[in-house]
Write a structure and sequence with these properties.
Number of helices: 5
Helix content: 40-55%
Radius of gyration: 25 Å
Largest sheet: 2 strands, antiparallel
Strand order of the largest sheet: 1-2
Strand content: 5-15%
Number of domains: 2
Length: 120
């Protein structure tokens, strides 16, 4: 059998065989982390979905009740598409006070109230 002792510092990952790469991962679990890529079309159960968007499970159920987030319910259990959870996270951004006032002033200008502008 060949010597499988791999020196992490002097090894290019491209030069390794699959077996050597697996051994390298096992030897250095804190250095090399292999992450599975999320498929946005996959579904998560309610508990995993609540952890992904960092809310309590009861809060997630309330969001479903208020139709703030899309849900799939093939049986008694709720399932959430990863794509829908990512969309919720991206659109949950709150405007700063400056952005809010800028938008407010633009709307006032469009409506014809150009006399007074609200300043920060």
């Amino acid at each position: 059998m060949e010597n499988t002792d791999i020196n992490f510092e002097n090894t290019r990952l491209i030069d390794l065989t699959v077996r050597q790469f697996r051994e390298l991962i096992n030897q250095h679990p804190n250095v090399i982390q292999v992450q599975e890529k999320e498929d946005p079309e996959e579904y998560l159960p309610a508990i995993a979905a609540s952890k992904k968007i960092n809310v309590a499970l009861s809060t997630l159920y309330g969001m479903v009740c208020r139709k703030e987030i899309s849900v799939h319910k093939p049986s008694k259990k709720l399932f959430f598409k990863i794509k829908d959870l990512n969309y919720y996270i991206e659109n949950a951004r709150k405007k700063s006070k400056v952005e809010f006032l800028e938008d407010f002033n633009k709307q006032r200008q469009r409506s014809g109230n150009r006399n007074k502008q609200v300043r920060v």
